[in-house]
Amino acid sequence: MARTIAMYNTIICEKDGPVAVVTLNRPERMNSLSVQLMQELADALAELERDDEVGALVITGARKSDGRPCFCAGADLKDMAANGSVTFYARFSTAQEAYLRAFEAFAKGTDTIIERGPISVFDRLANFSKPTIAAVDGICTAGGLEMALVCDMRIVAETAQMCDLHMKNIGHLGGAGVETRLTQLVGPSKAKELLWTGDIIDGQEAWRIGLANRVFPSNQMLEKAIELGKDISSRRRDAVRLSKATIDARMIFGERDSLRYTDLAAALLNLMSTPEVTNEGYNAFAEKRKPSFENEHENEKPLEAISDRS
Q1: pLDDT tens sequence across 200-221
Q2: What residue ranges define each of the domains in the chain, with the CATH number in brackets?
Q3: Does the predicted TM-score (pTM) go above 0.90?
Q4: Pseudo-torsion of CA 251, 257, 261, 267, nearest 10°?
């Protein structure tokens, strides 16, 4: 049974065994992303990152007062305008200045030239070291879709309504790398279709095109997402963490650098392992039982032992 682990105004943060469940809780505003919600989400992510009991994170949305599901309708533009959160270009006097600053930042190899506000929270979620699962039902558009894309996996209900309306409704590109991340999942042609038309797709279609990992009836979706989180949490945590970093590296680096990163991750995992932990997986397989890595850090080598190893 889930238990609340922290009190917030716009999100609910709970634990169900080793799985943290964060619920966007502004149903009267379709769980739209306000400045306060994004700050509270950033705070929650920082706490959950430090919590060794947490092996996976599920993000979902609260149902509306009439019982209809809703993941997230994107940014609460009125709230962000009222609280001084403005777009990138509005911070500069001319478009030329904006492009010049952006080019300078790119040439220096930096990700951004300004504090990116709400998008920086998506960056934190993307860099969260533990597996993340978006549990999606109902409306999932704009910033809601971007949040789902940032997660490692998406478990959706058949009644999910997923789309991006930035271009169709306001003539803008989406934020938080939606073009890049959507293309990685569904391919360039389908990504162009979805982004340019704003067409709404349901859970079955999202699964068919590769946007969703699994699809379930609405009344089972969240439970199945948590079950998946528990299953992944039962694996060796360090191995999962390094596997996630290695897979993500392939999307950032070229193939050659990604292969080198993979070799480095494997070597690092070996250096961190005691013989007991190293052999546990092999022994469990031979004995036809599930491996147990609950105490994998109990006899962890000190840093000097690792550095002295040749």
Answers
A1: 999 999 999 999 999 999 999 9
A2: 3-89+116-233 (3.90.226.10), 237-308 (1.10.12)
A3: no
A4: 160
